[in-house]
Amino acid sequence: MLPYALTIFTGAFLLFQVQPLIGKYILPWFGGGPGVWTTCLLFFQMLLLGGYAYAHLTSTRLSQKRQAIVHLVLLVLSLALLPITPSEYWKSLVGGDPTWRILLLLGGTIGLPYFVLSSTGPLMQQWFSITNPGVSPYRLYALSNVGSLLALLSYPVFFEVKFPRYTQGLLWSAGLVLFVLFCGYCALRVWRQAKTAPAEPAEPAEPAAPAAAPVADMSAPAEPAAVEAAVAGLPVVTPPTSPEHASANAADRLLWLALPAIASILLLATTNKLCQEVAVIPFLWVLPLSLYLLSFIISFDHARWYHRGVFSALLVVAVAFVFQVLPAGNDAPMKLQIIVYNAALFIACMVCHGELYRLKPPPRQLTGYFLFISAGGALGGFLVAIVAPAVFDDYRELQLGYWLLTYAAAVLCFRHRSREIAMGVIVGALALVFVLPWLRSYFDDTEGLSAELLSFLRHRALLIIAGLGVIIASVFNFRQLSVLPDWRPRMAWLVMMFCMTTGIVVVMQWPYGGTTPILASTRNFYGTLKVFDYNHDDEEDRYHLLLHGATTHGLQFMKAERSVLATSYYGESSGIGRALDNLRESPRRVGVVGLGTGSLLVYGRAGDYMRVYEINPAVEKIARTHFTYLQNCPAKVDVVIGDARLVMERELEEKKSQLFDVLALDAFSSDAIPVHLLTREAFEVYLQHLKPNGVIAIHISNRYLNLRPIVEKLADQHGLKVAVVYDDNEPDWWIYATTWVLVSRNETFLAQPAIADVTEAPEKTAQPAPLWTDDYASLYSIMK
Fold it and tell me: Minimal CA–CA distance to 358: which of 244, 279, 441?
């Protein structure tokens, strides 16, 4: 067993280790947004499906000798792609949707190695059954789980911290070489076994239930007795006491596909949500993925770990928590969001995977069963990464995923005539009476949150009635359903269709509960954008506001006389306002990272040059269509589409330093500056584009993270002086409270009264902040 154990453990470890590794490596190449990781997950899901299909086809269509030859060839070819560190050729310099470019990059770098690794679990179990007849491969499955979890948990706390990205890539490549040696030895054993087999060997035994889950190789066996019987090629007699253990029908196969698809949707949607609100970092990728994997491991270990009544009640509470936190948006504490979204994800995945386990077919149908599960996971990833951005103009996947799960729970309740699910839902609903007040205590504005809850109840009354209808129908139809030999959804059909239609309407309308007109709404790879028309009946105070996700990206008054006012984060008393107003150079060269509405262009003067870097083409379109800062600026303005750092690097390669007097960093990804714009390597690029006495102005206003010590550490690393300017937004409401950090070698400039008089004193911290680099950026020490 040792060669197979080493192969499966190494393969599972490498399969999970490469996911955050390659995601982190390419993150700064494509804007540093959540869409990069979502696209990576889609790639992993599709390759995993392909790997399992390959294992299934080779084990059923090819002889043992041919299986070994084909796999040995693939193993050798995978080594030809080492090391897996991607070439800089793949860097995206042109704005737009880079989804297909990311998929091509991943396919050209880790495609074949990942494909081979994804087939390891099912293939090794099948080979083990051939070379060790009568021995259960259950321990191999457990070892695979250990390797998978160890890889996920060790990356953010050990490998990411201890090694630079390039070294991580080399270590992983060395691990792949070791895996190829182990796997090649197993292939040779199968080949030798084939030589000693009879002339007409028996048909290969059914694999020991290898499960290809949406983002991982989770080869899960059936119950041990069934596994041993399947391995030995003996018929398995399954007691016909429950319809859940009967041969699968069309409804079962649909659930095999739908349940993992829902779990996959929720995994990607939860990760998206967390990364939008905080930052795109491996920790916020690994945590949801680990919980997802853990739910699969627990559910497929034994039926006793999943109790329908308990998890149905928990699901009701979890969904209520999610829909309570969602409207609060950024007002909800960061730690509360992390806990609520991840706890809800774990409970939801336990329901999906627990019900999948109960739907498992007889051993002879296991390969088809797990192929459906793998296909469902890939389908969920495709819907989130490809379909949702094309169909929706807002992030609706999280709401849609939870609604689909509640509907699936209703289907399962009728399908299996389950009193446990119905009673669990009722108990969960009663528990909300005690739980919701406790949740509100975490918010500062309890009265406002309560008002929002009442508004939700008022506007969603139809959905609530539909939900109650499902519960009532479940309870009162048990007596009738319990005597039916088969499921007859005559009475349930209308209730569930009503629930489905209502749910779709609610999800499509969420969160358009306000009365402010929306002039434009769009979504692409980089996020969602909305333009609101406030006070449209008041000529004096009418203004347009741009919202990116949940973060304001600027506003402008529509009256001509007021349209030239500096607003939002860019008032004259802000750090950037003071820096631009106190520059003695004329004309001035100003660089801006992040266009938004173009608000900073109000500081442009005749003869000035302002160069704006913007990665999202939709932002420029909105700025030119619904705002007039660009058209009215007297300075010469160039808008460059592409990731600012990559474009600046290319300009330096072409010997085109911009020699800015001021470079303003205002590129938000939701509420946080993308991490790759605040690293040591990024600052080295900025300084080469700056005049010797130039100024870098960094906008660090953030609800969740204290970015000040990070910027101060970067400044100290490069021998720069720092002035932190806080503006408390008085007396005008259209000037927001902001914090800007001015960084420069020019001490005389920072000592001017207009800047020095408002500069905050240095903060006293218990321990120094870490230096952020492209290889490592820790958020733990700067969480508020």
Answer: 244
With contact defined as beta carbons under 8 Å apart, do 317 and 323 qualify?
A: no
pLDDT in tens, 243-288: 444 556 778 888 999 999 999 999 999 998 888 766 677 788 889 9
CA separation for the pair 765, 399 (Å, rounded):
40
Question: What does the alpha-carbon distance between residue 13 and residue 175 come to, in Å, rounded to a whole number?
Answer: 9
Tell me the angle at which helices 34-61 and 2-26 cross, rounded to the nearest 10 degrees: 150
Residue 219 to residue 125: CA distance in whole angstroms: 9
Contact 682, 647 (CB under 8 A): no
Query: Are the C-beta atoms of residues 78 and 120 closer than 8 Å to each other?
Result: no
pLDDT tens for residues 101-159?
Answer: 899 999 999 999 999 998 887 788 778 877 777 776 666 767 788 888 899 889 988 88
SS3 assignment, position 550: coil
Choose among 570, 573, 520: nearest CA to 544: 520
Beta strands at 660-665 and 690-699: parallel, antiparallel or unpaired? parallel
Q: List the structure tokens of 450.
A: 């309560």
Residues in the chain: 784
- Which residues partner with 740 through β-bridges? 699, 725
- Where does 485-557 show beta strands of DSSP type E? 518-524, 527-534, 543-548, 551-557
- At residue 363, φ and ψ (nearest 5 deg) are -55, -30
Report d(CA 276, CA 269) in Å as an integer: 10
